[in-house]
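Pipeline run #58 for the internal structure catalog. This entry was flagged by the ingest filter as a single-chain record with no existing model, so it goes straight to prediction. Upstream metadata was stripped on purpose; only the residue string is passed forward. Reviewer on rotation: M.T. Logging verbosity set to normal.
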Amino acid sequence: MNTRTLPLVEVRGSHRQMGQQMGEARRESIAHALETAHQLIDDAYQTLQLTWDGARIQARKYLPFAQERYPQYIEELEGIAEGANASLDDLLVINAMEAVTSDALHLTKCTSLAVNQSRTASGNVLVAHNEDWLPEDEADVFVLRAFPDDGPPFLAMTYGGLLPNIGFNAAGIAQCCDSVYPSDSRIGIPRLVVSRAVLSARTISEAIRHILVPQRAAGYNHLLAHESGELYSIEVSARQFAVLYGLDGSIAHTNHYLDPQMKLVESEPDEQISTRIRYFRALRLLQQREKFTVKDLVEIQRDHVNYPESICNHETPGDPLDRQKTITALIMDLTQRQMHICWGNPCSSTYCTYQLDA
């Protein structure tokens, strides 16, 4: 088993100060992540007809929308650039990658699920997420413990120079993001900026208002959990949304829309077979037990049905644009304010525990 422990970076202060601290702490990792993204754009030229310079121009189009609604997170990104001695234009590309590439790469195969106190042996609220992305980015994953001047402290997973968005905060709100592929995408606030704002929310309604911010470029599925046991999936496109609720004390989502109206704006659903298989597999596994422990959720994260495009996703040789794998898997215990997380495929990695002391 891989026993590596993910790096922990602790930041505090204003958004610019937090960004500078992230950039300084992860300078080499950010440089590597930018190199990886640059190579991805180069490799995808035949598909996208897009160069890195063109991607920088495209990413800049999204900046005014983000600055108008969420200037604090652009300041955070500027701080990362300053601390890492990196170009802000380059960081804008990787933070708006899905928008810049018009979702043409279909790279993400994440799986998210949650169970509340009615479905756990401990009575705790547990949230699980497998993050699937390019294997080259696995080296750049880290855990961020943040103490913003203007919001609740939070514990998150991120990598490279990406704004954090998958994690939980001291207000008892957790978020997992699963890429979906709407046909109504437009130039607007990038998805990563929108989801970064959710970590600042103090209530469920505030979190959902951030998710549905006007002028958003597109949308994720945002799986939200609250320490009270409330469980939601908010399916979002640029102009539409649906709210799904975990009625039986559990909820799961992958990379396709579940709501009938949202299915109408899904781009190329016939290409998204593996996400449906992962979703139904996760749903079945959630129905096989009445009460879950952290260990039980780890077993779901390690599941290999439909390997290699399984919940525990493995790289397959061949197309350089279809090499994603599970680069990290995490379980958040909202009751204990803990994150159990492994580095790499969960089937071959041990989990370490990080605490949010707020």
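catalog note: The mean pLDDT is 95.
catalog note: The two ends are 32 Å apart (CA to CA).
status: ready for reviewer M.T.
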